[in-house]
């Protein structure tokens, strides 16, 4: 098994032991403590590769990766490509295999990460890039923020039946104690206001909120991200 962004070693160790699995690699998307907090404990006594963004020093990372670098996990028969997706942080990376995306805190279901080091243009570009992936790509983001994000998405684009349908599905999943993740890129294109900053409904909601009509997708995205910060 590989672990992505293990914030807590105990959770991973418990899963390994319950499932009878062996940890063969760790993949890190960015340096925030809730994503790397378990790394040093997990690598103690294990000689395993720890992949992470080359552009910053992260304790425990021994396989620094940059745009286009391959992450080979032969024990799992898996190969990922590294995508640089700055914005949430300046050096955030994502890992992509056919049909599977680990995107850390860049793209969430119905939302996106906050600007904590990177810029709005960077995050806008990174999200546009992820939105162009095949529709059936599974989106494994790192936090179960979906219902809270959907509450904002409703304000940011009031008339969106696809979003309402996804909200009903997510409420049922959470009521049953199940995760709403992974999402899919195709769904996110339909429900996520941060991927829909060229849609009339989002532009109008942003204009009504700020009193200024955004000139383009980036201006709409920037205003939307600032609005969500105080929502
Ligand atoms: Zn983060």
Helix and strand topology:
Blueprint: E1 2-4, H1 9-19, E2 25-27, H2 33-36, H3 39-43, E3 50-53, E4 63-65, E5 70-73, E6 78-84, E7 93-97, E8 100-104, E9 107-108, E10 111-112, H4 120-131, E11 138-141, H5 146-156, H6 161-175, E12 183-184, H7 185-191, H8 200-210, H9 217-229
Parallel strand pairs: 1-2, 2-3, 3-4, 8-11
Antiparallel strand pairs: 5-6, 6-7, 7-8, 9-10, 11-12
Helix pairs in contact: 5-6, 8-9
The protein binds zinc ion.
Structure overview:
The protein has a domain at 1-67. The chain has nine helices and twelve strands. Strand 7 and strand 8 (100-104) form a beta hairpin. It is α/β, with parallel strands linked by helices. The mean pLDDT is 98. It has a six-stranded mixed sheet with strand order 5-6-7-8-11-12. Strands 1-2-3-4 form a four-stranded parallel sheet, with no helix packed on it. Strands 9-10 form a two-stranded antiparallel ribbon. The structure holds zinc ion.
Please report which band the strand proportion falls in: under 5%, 5-15%, 15-25%, 25-35%, 35-45% or over 45%. Answer: 15-25%
Query: Between the first and last Cα atoms, what is the distance in angstroms?
Result: 38 Å
Q: Could you list the spans in which at least 5 consecutive residues all have pLDDT below 50?
A: none
Number of strands: 12
Widest sheet: strand ordering: 5-6-7-8-11-12
Q: What class do helices, strands and sheet pairing give?
A: alpha/beta
Number of helices: 9
Shape: globular
Indicate the mean pLDDT.
98
Work out the radius of gyration: 18 Å
Ligand set: zinc ion
Main pleated sheet: 6 strands, mixed
Topology as H/E string? EHEHHEEEEEEEEHEHHEHHH
| Helix content, binned percent | 25-40%
